[in-house]
């Protein structure tokens, strides 16, 4: 069953497209109509698609906030706070209209669960807000399972130019379905930490990351993320935890495990006002990392995998 | 630190030293003068809670007063850039 309040001001359609022509037909009129209505417009899509829209808009492209999603939204966990909310909140009292394409054919198996959870959480993060977020899906290159998930994460879907309600819409269930166990390789180095060893463990983890090939310019961000996750365990999750590090393909991955339960689905995706003291910890991790995966259950506690491109 | 008011801090600002850092900042905001210098060249690391305490203290300064950071560690500069860019109460001293 699905119930939608007819007064819900937030609109979140998926746009299924087969080719460039359908892409432009589904996106450019959306942008032009919004500009004509005087609404603020942002387009955050992968570079080649961004170029298509920019070229088609011509001079009017200057009126649109354009972002390459493969950079701004590399880590799907930061798209809500740093791309969508950041844009919508900078135009208070007006209806933000955004094209957001977080899922493209090059997304990896490790990235996908975080991407689809992000799509589901948009509905929660924007509930009750005056905004429209249109999400294009490339039906030629994406798997059928990805398109099936798009029906679960979007209340409406536009296909062949026609918009219809999705009977499969169930974003909370999807977030739970992708709360999957994370695997750790046998060779990963490991350390247990408590309050007294936080600084030493953070420093050692950062040295290991350097040994695994993480570049100098990323080590500061890595150290900040490790500090935040390990301090969280000590302050909020039983006073101790275990940290592991390894490298996989192009990434250095740091795992932090503790006995806490992460039961706030929007943790790390809210923007606290700048005078507020707390509430930025997981947001910081989302902002600096290239990917964050989380598995959390009452029985097993919380495991977080933080990926940094090396 | 002659001729200007300030504080020199050394070591790292993280969970074991937060209480000390918060007390130091509470004293700093009560000082007179338009600019208060924090000499941070011997600080090796500042975590998010440490940066937050500084940013909140700076936002509580009144009447155009400001904190001047002298050679902050990269961790602190990065956190200020990410969450508190262009805070009027914080100035980074030219190197």
Automatic annotation (TrEMBL), chain A:
InterPro entries: Anti-sigma-factor_SerPK, HATPase_C_sf, HATPase_dom, MEDS_domain, RsbA-like_anti_sig
Key words, A-Z: Kinase, Serine/threonine-protein kinase, Transferase
Database matches in Gene3D superfamilies: Histidine kinase-like ATPase, C-terminal domain
Keyword GTP-binding: no
Domain Histidine kinase/HSP90-like ATPase: residue ranges: 196-303
Coiled coil ranges: none
Domain MEDS intervals: 11-155
Protein name: Sensor histidine kinase
Species this chain originates from: Streptomyces kunmingensis
TrEMBL record, chain B:
Segments forming domain STAS: 1-81
Species this chain originates from: Streptomyces kunmingensis
Gene3D superfamilies membership: STAS domain
Name of the protein in question: STAS domain-containing protein
Lineage: superkingdom: Bacteria
């Amino acid at each position: 069953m699905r119930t939608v309040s007819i007064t819900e001001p937030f609109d979140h359609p998926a746009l299924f497209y087969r080719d460039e022509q359908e892409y432009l037909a589904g996106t450019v009129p959306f942008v032009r109509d919004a500009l004509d209505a005087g609404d603020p417009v942002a387009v955050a899509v992968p570079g080649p698609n961004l170029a298509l829209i920019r070229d088609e808009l011509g001079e009017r492209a200057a009126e649109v906030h354009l972002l390459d999603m493969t950079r701004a939204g590399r880590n799907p966990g930061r798209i809500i706070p740093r791309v969508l909310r950041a844009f919508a909140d900078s135009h208070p009292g007006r209806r933000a209209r955004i094209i957001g394409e977080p899922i493209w054919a090059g997304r990896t198996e490790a990235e996908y669960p975080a991407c689809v959870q992000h799509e589901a959480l948009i509905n929660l993060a924007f509930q009750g807000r005056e905004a429209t977020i249109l999400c294009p899906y490339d039906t030629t290159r994406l798997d059928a399972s990805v398109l099936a998930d798009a029906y679960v994460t979007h209340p409406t879907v536009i296909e062949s130019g026609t918009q219809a309600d999705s009977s499969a819409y169930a974003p909370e269930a999807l977030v739970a379905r992708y709360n999957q166990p994370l695997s750790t390789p046998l060779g990963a180095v490991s350390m247990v930490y408590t309050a007294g060893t936080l600084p030493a463990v953070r420093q050692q983890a950062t040295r290991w990351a350097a040994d695994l090939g993480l570049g100098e310019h990323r080590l500061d961000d890595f150290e900040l993320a490790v500090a935040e996750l390990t301090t969280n365990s000590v302050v909020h999750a039983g006073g101790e935890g275990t940290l592991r590090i390894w490298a996989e393909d192009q990434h250095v991955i740091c795992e932090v495990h503790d006995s806490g339960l992460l039961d706030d689905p929007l943790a790390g995706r809210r923007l606290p006002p700048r005078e507020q003291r707390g509430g930025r910890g997981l947001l910081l991790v989302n902002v600096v990392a290239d990917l964050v995966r989380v598995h959390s259950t009452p029985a097993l506690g919380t495991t977080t995998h933080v990926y940094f491109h090396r | 630190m002659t001729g200007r008011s300030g504080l020199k801090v050394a070591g790292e600002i993280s969970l074991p030293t937060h209480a000390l850092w918060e007390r130091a900042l509470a004293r700093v905001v009560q000082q007179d003068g338009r600019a208060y210098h924090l000499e941070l060249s011997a600080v090796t690391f500042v975590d998010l809670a440490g940066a937050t305490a500084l940013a909140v203290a700076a936002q509580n300064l009144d009447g155009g007063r400001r904190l001047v950071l002298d050679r902050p560690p990269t961790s602190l500069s990065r956190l200020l850039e990410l969450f508190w860019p262009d805070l009027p109460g914080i100035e980074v001293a030219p190197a």
